[in-house]
Amino acid sequence: EGPAKVTLVEVGPRDGLQNEKTPIALEHKLALIERLAACGLKVIEATAFVSPQWVPQMADHAEVMRALRGRRHPGVRHPVLVPNLKGLEAAFAAGVDEIAVFGAASETFSRKNINCGIAEALERFRPVVAQARAAGVRVRGYVSCVVGCPYEGPVAPEKVAEVAAALFEMGCEEISLGDTIGVGTPRQVIALLEAVAQRVPLERLAGHFHDTYGMAVANVYAAWRFGVATFDASVAGLGGCPYAKGASGNVATEELVYLFDGLGVETGVDLKALVETAWWVSGLLGREPASRVARALGGS
Ligand code: HMG
Ligand code: MG
């Protein structure tokens, strides 16, 4: 059996919203973050200090962080994505206290996502991580395409382990392994963890599973049994584009809370409040929650 307690990293306000085509009001983003904190989530990824040309929905990153500074829930951390030194400068100016750099195990995906290859990305991250750490800012490192790449197909666990180790060795305190297109199944996830755990301590790993093929809960369960104790998830299963195969949302946070409640594993998250939040945010976006747990339990 796996760890008795897990940390859920809520990525809905960032990963969940980044693909939404219609601009979402700052007030709604802030209300979402506040509701998630009130549900008991202690890590809520808030935004991304990326180029507004690349991801228009995250263009209000500085406003989000400034507003959050004034109304923080005690003990809640708000990491933000930072791709380069320009992003770090803006993140510092907005008062962030935790960042995440994001690399990939696929060369083509890396170029499509951040306009440079894997090796160059790692060199870009090095001073970002060093400066953040020097300022007392915690750093997480993502690796995307840990099972498969939308452009290159299957990705070898050894390649993922190499990138994960590079991020860990440059100072990332936690490495989040992203099945970006949700193609993985538990056997692949275990092979991946076996390879990565040889280079990065298991307790520093997080699982980040998109649910494109409906395998995310199975993958989380497998990773938990392997010993992973941190999982990224998105309220209501937000994220992705309904028309783009290979780009659906993250596993829904309420599905993981339901899973772990059933396993007797502590998450610290109130399922009922979370399901209400899933319905609330889905209503804002004009749709029903993607998650079956939210639909089964209903909105109030
Ligand atoms: P680039 O065009 O190569 O950047 O983009 P550049 O350095 O050549 O600069 C070009 C322009 O962008 C300049 O502006 C810069 O100032 C500006 P101009 O002089 O032309 O007016 N710029 C910036 N503006 C704001 N913030 C910045 C920044 N940097 C440069 N930080 C760049 C490179 C990385 C910026 C771009 O490719 C980018 O923003 N990419 C972000 C893509 C992204 O956010 N993807 C989604 C998140 S990753 C993800 O979802 C996966 C994950 O969930 C895990 C998983 O599921 O696998 C994490
Ligand atoms: Mg993601």
From TrEMBL:
- EC assignment: 4.1.3.4
Q: Does the keyword Hydrolase apply?
A: no
* GO terms of molecular function: hydroxymethylglutaryl-CoA lyase activity; metal ion binding
Repeat: is it a keyword of this entry? no
Q: Name one GO biological process term.
A: L-leucine catabolic process
Reaction catalysis annotation: (3S)-3-hydroxy-3-methylglutaryl-CoA = acetoacetate + acetyl-CoA
Q: In which pathway does it act?
A: Metabolic intermediate metabolism; (S)-3-hydroxy-3-methylglutaryl-CoA degradation; acetoacetate from (S)-3-hydroxy-3-methylglutaryl-CoA: step 1/1
The residue ranges of the Pyruvate carboxyltransferase domain are: 6-275
- Which keywords has UniProt assigned to this entry? Lyase, Metal-binding
InterPro entries xrefs: Aldolase_TIM, HMG_CoA_lyase_AS, HMGL, PYR_CT
Give the enzyme class.
lyase
Q: Which family does it belong to?
A: Belongs to the HMG-CoA lyase family.
Q: What is this protein called?
A: hydroxymethylglutaryl-CoA lyase
**What is the phylogenetic placement of the source species in the record?**
Bacteria, Pseudomonadati, Pseudomonadota, Hydrogenophilia, Hydrogenophilales
